[in-house]
Amino acid sequence: MVDYLIFLAISTSIFALFGLGLNLQWGFTGLVNFGPVAFMTLGAYTTVLLSLKGVPLFISALLGAVAAALLGLVIGFSTLRLREDYLAIVTIGVGELIRLVVNNQDLPVGDTWTSGAFGVQSYPIPLATFTPNLFVKLLMIGLLTILAGLTLWQLWRWIKFSQPSPKKKFMNRQEFISRLVVGILLGLLSVAIYISGAIALYDYNPKAGLMLLLLLSLAFVFWRLEILVRSPWGRILKAIREDEEVPKAMGKNVFWYKMQSLMLGGAIAGIAGAFFAWQLSAIYPDNFQPQLTFDTWIMVILGGSGNNVGTILGAVIFFAYDALTREVLPKIVPLDEARLGAFRIMVIGLILMGLMIWRPQGILGKKEELTLGK
């Protein structure tokens, strides 16, 4: 049970990180990116290939993020001066193009060249061969404790801020209740992950070490994004999303702000790609199918675009649904494995259709910030 919770925590955190990059591009800037998997693929392969050449893992991951950001630069220069539908079309094509190139190109794996279709295996993974002593184990548990405490404290502040009062007329009772329910669920989940992580770190499971590193990275990216989107830079992004002619009239370089958003979101997706590769321990081109893009869009839409907490919530709900239906549905629905998979996808499609009808802004999104109708 502990190992399974750690696996779910890693999977959820990777796609929460991936979704934060997409949410910056679409939720805050209005850029329709239908190929975020391209940035993840480039980040993953750059990281593992450099690490096989002896480059330290931290530097490899940073260079993977830089490569993904440069891809955003190339895509941006070719599309951002045109209508936004060109960006959607180009990103779909680039996502498949990179996967097919990797699949058909020989890759420099170690001292030899190997066909990309055979994948890349046996690359270094953070903390995989690490054997901590008792002091280091307690230090890692302490870091996890601090992270869990900060998470619970921020959830408490987030709920407290939403309490209806005469001074906060904009905050209605329905939003307060939704925040309260979400806060309690995320709090309980944080406690469960903390307990599982503390047990696994004390007995030292390398996957628990990877989970701790990933959670720290997710917390850092979330913290910096929250600061950025509330800064003047973030307000300009929101103005571009609503009507880019307004910031243009104010003398802002809209093209460059869009480029920054596309590149930063791409870099975040590249970091998510590095963690995705480390989780899998062996990567193949088919690991980066367009389905990853669709899943990430589901998470962002489900949680609420333009809301970083909503993106994390969307990832949690998506993987909770995935885990529960894998365990429960076979006992309820008399279908074989292939049809059961199709049924699970159909159900989440129906849920999204209902959400688009009754709450198109998502669970935590604001209707006045909705970009679906653009």
UniProtKB/TrEMBL annotation:
The chain crosses the membrane at residues 6-24, 31-52, 58-79, 86-102, 134-156, 176-202, 208-225, 262-284, 296-321, 341-358. It is found in: Cell membrane. The keyword Membrane applies. InterPro entries: ABC_transp_permease, LivM-like. Keywords: Cell membrane, Membrane, Transmembrane, Transmembrane helix. It is a multi-pass membrane protein. Pfam families: BPD_transp_2 (PF02653). CDD domains: TM_PBP1_LivM_like. Signal peptide: none annotated. GO terms for cellular component: plasma membrane. One of its GO terms (molecular function) is branched-chain amino acid transmembrane transporter activity. It comes from the Bacteria. This is Branched-chain amino acid ABC transporter permease. It comes from Aetokthonos hydrillicola Thurmond2011.
